[in-house]
Amino acid sequence: MMAAHKNKYALRSASLVLALFLGGCASAPPQQSSAPARQFPELENAPPDPQSIVSISDPFERFNRTMYNFNARFDRYVFLPVVSGYETVMPNIAQQGVTNFFNNLREVKYFINNLAQAKFTNTGVTLGRFVINTTIGIAGLWDPATRMGLYVRKEDFGQTLGYWGVGSGPYLVLPIFGPSSVRDAGGLAFDFAADYEIDLLNLNDDANKDNIRIALTLLKAIDTRKNTKFRYYETGSPFEYTLVRFAYMRMREVQVEK
Amino acid sequence: MKLLSKTVCSLFSCALLVFTPSALAIKVAGYEFPIDDPYDATVIGTPKELSAGAPEQIPSKVYTIKSIDSLPDLFWYEDGLKFSAALQNHPAPLVFNIAGTGAAYNASKLLTMQQELYHAGFHVINISSPTSLNFLLTGSTEHMPGYAPDDAQDLYRVMQQAYDMVKKDIQVTAFHVAGYSLGAMHAAFVADIDQREKKFNLQKVFMINPPVNLYNSAIILDKLGNDNIPKVNGVPVPGKLLDEVIDALAEAYEPDKGMEFDNDFIYTAYRQKVADGTLNGKRTSAALIGLSFRLTSGAMVFAADVMNRTGYFVPKDQVISPNDSLIPFIRPSFLITFEEYIDKMLVPRLQQKYPDKTRETILQDASLHAIEGFLKTNPNIRVIVNSDEIILAPGELSYLEGIMGNRITVYPLGGHCGNMNHKTNVASMVSFLKGVGAP
Question: Nearest by CB to A250, which of B77, B246, B322?
């Protein structure tokens, strides 16, 4: 299960750079003067078990929490209202078309990363999906491939790194994107760069490329948020940050294995 | 991730509890329910094919009632007490649904009740449990829930505020109240208050799997956690349990076949694992119920301590900023049982408020015994329970049967609320609230 941890320290230098960069965010520990009534001697002698929810490596916790709260506010006051407006204005069939369109563009990422993990069947399926959905599915607005039993084979560069033994590194909350890790953030940057270079929509030669790119990025962001069920501060636990952190890191392990 | 808490929360193995027959209680013949372990039933719930299955899409809206107190920065994200209402466009009776321990207005069990009742023609308002974080922070006068008479006062006020916010849009022909688990107990206490104050003139009370005495049930659930959550150096490690469950589920996870690791998958895979007997030992469901209860009580203890500056385990004068790590409080909060919360925080506080009450009278007043007279004589109250209920102490089921007589239905299986979505159960709720036929 934890094969990915062989090269646990491969990202040490990256973490170090980040730590220096984020160092300014840390501040002195909160002062406490009066000792609480209840003491927990049993915890003093028992360091958290590595499998404990609280044991996820999170040296940037203060920065991450700040970012988590920023994201929650952004979600509440900007992102979700925009998504809700989009859902009101756009007919359902058009919304589904937009979702399918961006999913079809994501096949490029899935193709590269299936190939990079030597998952050749999945690479073939991904190619097949892309061809079918781009042609029969008319530029990806429909998804006939899934109906034919060719299910999407999602892989990203974070998973590819994990597949080749790169450990997740510390937990990292990214602005807007939310929960991630040092490895997965790097993976995200790689996937973005690849997407830009491959330039499937041939934007790089277009006179209005910047405007088109901004519009597409915004639409993609709205579509992605619409299809993500997660809502900040809805778990009913004051320890949500820590629960989400555990869930994210654990879920990524499952994804890397599969 | 919601699914962690939701799955864990909506989600246990020992022999069936001995069922003491009673002369009057209604027994259900020919009741079909496929899960005969009460802990598994509690975790898995009613399989789709036996569920009542009203469509999920209903025109329900979420409303926010202004918080009664201003909150510390730590809880910046709570801006008021949330409730949801699904309203008919024709005159109809209105049902208030009250959630169980730690659960909010949008908990899946309460949402299902709302869908079923809405489709049966009722206006439905879903109210969070006073033990949920949102209610504790924004709707509770004491910010220290667990004492049913006071919690019911808060609920009664919130019900009025909620109704005030929607009444211009609807015509109401009668008011009813329903609830599951702790919410069922709260429903009875609220109806008792209403009998005196007549703000709603509540007609009917439907109680699904109520505790008789919260203290007794808390001890049972605390013990479930203590006995079943894996321990390292004597300290329970919930992550270990979750790791085991996630690993078992991951075996069944085949993304290449179009599966998503979402709530539906977890539900189906867990049910399959239980059916195959391949989960790590028979105690997994019991452990998950114990864990869910512990997470709920930990959340409650922490929030109550911070809000009241009790100094019980959060230092009194410590100001916690929203960006501070809460790790120093998470492990301790997990070691504090609900029983400890009642004994060390709640009871001392109540004794300050009601100096003439002893610990015993406080616990008695917070149980159904306190409103026994009301329960015994009122023909418009119905209770449904299961003979394999896991949260009742010995003798409590017979007690319920004794005071309710022919107004209680005892189903043979379902554990704690595992069968509340069963078509038979839902039909009995709807027909009782509609006032037609025998319960």
Answer: B246
